[in-house]
Amino acid sequence: MREDREMAKAQSYNRPWSAIRSECSRVQTNSLTSYIDANFVYGSSPTLAAKLREYRGGCLKVLPQFKDLGLKPLLPLKTEQPDDGCIRPHRDLYCFLAGDNRVNEQLALGVLHTLFVREHNRIAHELSVVNPHWSDEQLYQETRHILAAIVQHITYNEFLPRLLGKQTMQKYGLELKHYGYSDDYDPYIDATIPSAFGTAAFRFGHSLLPKSMERWSVTNKFIASRRFSEMFQQPYDLNKPGWLDQYLVGMLNQAALPMDDAITTQVTNHLFQEPTHEYGKDLASINLQRAREHGVPSYSEYREFCNLPPVNTWTSLLKSLDNSTVHRYQDLYSFPQDLDLWSAGVSEIPIGDSLIGPTFSCIIARTFRDLKRGDRFWYENSGSPSSFSLAQLQEIRKVKLSRILCDNADDLITIQPWALEMPNDYTNSRVSCNSRLLEGINFAHWREIQDRDPWAKIPAADPWVSARPSYDPSGSTHPVELVTLSGQYKPTASSFIPSASSYSPPPPPPRPNVQVEVSYSPQISYKPLEFSSNEINVTSTYKPLESLFIQQISTKKPLLDTYSYSSTLRPPSSTSTVSYTSAEFSSTPMLVSSSFFFFFLKML
């Protein structure tokens, strides 16, 4: 009886701030940026962003707590308003400070935040090596630019395909390009996060949450587990040497729960439970109340919005929900049209190779489509001063989440290539962190050209661009910035035969006399059959200054003896060896996601 009385007590609920749209409708405010911009690392306000910066070497603040042990630093401590979002059994204990104040909600989030802050500082260091003349501001801003692009790439290359499945990804245009730039940007798309997404659909992950978090050794042996209710807003285990790696390996080995209408009591009875209390809050109740507070329409209305069969009777629900679930909802709701979006959405039977049902798939896919097409700074876009060069873009496309984890963990030895899926011996077997399957970024492509030559006018966004003059006998000069060659490329003969050329800017006839010498001798190798396409891998070495760099060679056609080819060539600044891998390794999605899947979505 005591338990019943305790559980029957009303929960406190904080109503969100509201704002008025231009057409005078009331909406709830979103304190975070809508776009996928790594705001969990940098914050969503200039004040917080400044507070997180070291202002030295482009780095973010960290706590070198275990430097003497050879371990990497932790997040800085939150010393201002330390009790906000933090349960402190002792006054000398502090939680962590990060770009998102939810970093301390659960220890797994603290692990991920720490790893991505380390990644920022690692990238900043790499950029400082290739550009030692860069200021702190240049290093910070370009590192932020790169890391935001990496998060976008991982989200659409690893997370969303596992969540939505291939068919939904194709239907909503969510698949990434393998080469070149994207032309999907539409300035008229509003990328504001809809309430149905934030308060219902993207909370599907609460069903995946296990009751405890496991620690595993770096040799993938189980050590121990701890209930989530003991760690909410208490991330103090990260202050123990080596435990961050143990929790990380635990997430890589611990399976997420299946997607259904069941949620662990760790978040329905013990959410944010104080150490001296017997119970905490109920996350499921909060989800329902928040959606109602926001005025989110019913499950039935969203099915209509998504062009799905209507829900008019309880029997019509049997096509989307399990029989036992429908019978339970009949006891809770008077009519099927009254079903809350979140409760019915998490109960839907998953479609195809998706983790979720059709209604949540529709809402989530539409939102991520708008986030991609409506983002002026989307990493695949071209034509902007912030756009990556084609070579830089190809480097970002190499990155997997597993590479980031290997680079920033303390002593991680092996990992499955697809970190959001459980390891297995067939399509996702563990490999060494030094494996060539886990490619990293070559930051030489960010090297800025320092040249006092007045003709070298193109900035360092592309390290291979150099405008060098040729001299005619009279001594006049003309800058050759771009050379376009057309011709045939023969893989069997390893040769490129130019048939026509043009120069930009064109030389003003009749002078000066512009001459360009082309030296091209690639080594060709073919992709093995396990790759998703039979495209060409090109490694080319060029002479400095006199020769030209071919930016890209790729084809989606079957391998033939001869290809028609046209490319823009740029003079390099020095001898360079460039390797392009032009196909992504294909992997069959696993039936079970690692618990890492849930914690990654919590950061987005």
TrEMBL record:
Query: Which residues are listed for heme b binding in this entry?
Result: 206
- Predominant location of this chain? secreted
Its Gene Ontology biological processes? cellular process involved in reproduction in multicellular organism; response to oxidative stress
Example of a GO MF term? peroxidase activity
User: Which Gene3D superfamilies does this chain map to?
Assistant: Haem peroxidase domain superfamily, animal type (1.10.640.10)
| Keywords per UniProt | Heme, Iron, Metal-binding, Oxidoreductase, Peroxidase, Secreted, Signal
Q: Name one GO cellular component term.
A: extracellular region
Phylogenetic classification of the source organism: Eukaryota, Metazoa, Ecdysozoa, Arthropoda, Hexapoda
Organism the protein comes from: Diaphorina citri
Q: Which SUPFAM superfamilies match?
A: Heme-dependent peroxidases (SSF48113)
User: Cellular location of this protein?
Assistant: Secreted
**InterPro entries from the entry?**
Haem_peroxidase_animal (IPR019791), Haem_peroxidase_sf (IPR010255), Haem_peroxidase_sf_animal (IPR037120)
Protein name in UniProt: Peroxidasin homolog
